[in-house]
Amino acid sequence: VGGFAMFGNGDSKRTVNYLSDVPNSFTTSTRLTDADTKMNGGNLEFGYKHEFGKDHYLDFNITTDKWQMDNTSIYKQNSVFADANEVSSYQKQIMNMNNHEVEIQLDYFKKINENSKLEAGYKASIERENSPVETYGGTSEGTAIPQTDLFNRFLYNQDVHALYTTYTGKMNKFGYQLGLRGEYSSIETRSPGYNESASDVTPFNKDYFSLFPTLFLSYSLPADNELQLSYTRRIERPGGHELNPFVDITDSTNISFGNPNLLPEFSNAFELNYIKNWDKHVFSFSGYFRNTDNVIQRISYLEGNVMKSTFENISRSMSTGTELVLKDELFKMLELTSTVNVYYYKLDGFKYMPEGASDYITGKDNEDFTWNARMIASFRFPKSYSLQLTGNYNAKQIIAQGYQKANYSLDAGLRKQVKKLSFSINAR
Fold first, then answer.
1. What's the pLDDT score for residue 250?
2. End-to-end CA, the chain
């Protein structure tokens, strides 16, 4: 039995200055944002393990998580027009997010003999989210009234039930693993409008059953060399911010919102991998091919003088490339993991009509070569100190509408262990 609780709050202030030469629009405008956020949550976990004998057991776990976040944002904007006329506006947005998730997992394991083992199990994930948002607006705080067109209450129910089995075996230098997971998903979303209850709106329902086979083959070569071949089918579900139709008005000229009708992405991955092991070094070189259906991407379109952005299942994608991984242990105090991934990426064209738009948003087929790299350095110091540095670099990559510029990041974390307690500080 275990668990934890977490509490936090934060304040943020932001100023956005606009310059415009659009006819009949303001020439300059300043938007001030003052936001206050409070968050609390907790986790409880119960586990039970029954052993039938050596390397033969049944493992049961149930976990429940509950999170709540309350956010109040106040926006004040002052705009100056070409005729020196000034216009002021005031908006207040209140969001209360409540999320509750329960996860149940039952795992069975049996080692049949020295060369084979069987695993099977069941996993259920049950998630409930209720996130009402109210928006008030006017020329000042005293004149602000409810903006009914920006009201949003997002109700999200997702149930996922999965059964799986995996058999692992070995014959001389040849190893294999066969697996199959069957997954049933049920999703229901509702977005009641102002003065509407959940029963007043028609829900969006999506129920589907999917099979996810896996195959791993390996062959041991002399001098600690190994070849691996694998196939996996995967699923990537949209995140809460991609589904929630909450209208983010932080930037009055660039409004974003989610799409509750999104479908998950499904992909197939084939990989051929070569691994070489030394005493303190590991080298891996792999070639792969992946294709994905229902690709989720951000779509932007202009409506008047306002840019609107949402998410949509636009098309299919394909990528093929090579990945190199090198792991090194140096001087007994430093571990380095370096990864370089070079690949060709192709995104199919699409045609999409956003709600409220006056014309189709279209995109042509696009393709390009790109790459990314990562290095993780882990240091072990005396007196139970440890330091980890992580560097990432992503080269320019095509997206649905144009491309994403190259970007990089560096994370650092320092930890001190004191008996059963640990203290850490992190920077990004």
1. 82
2. 33
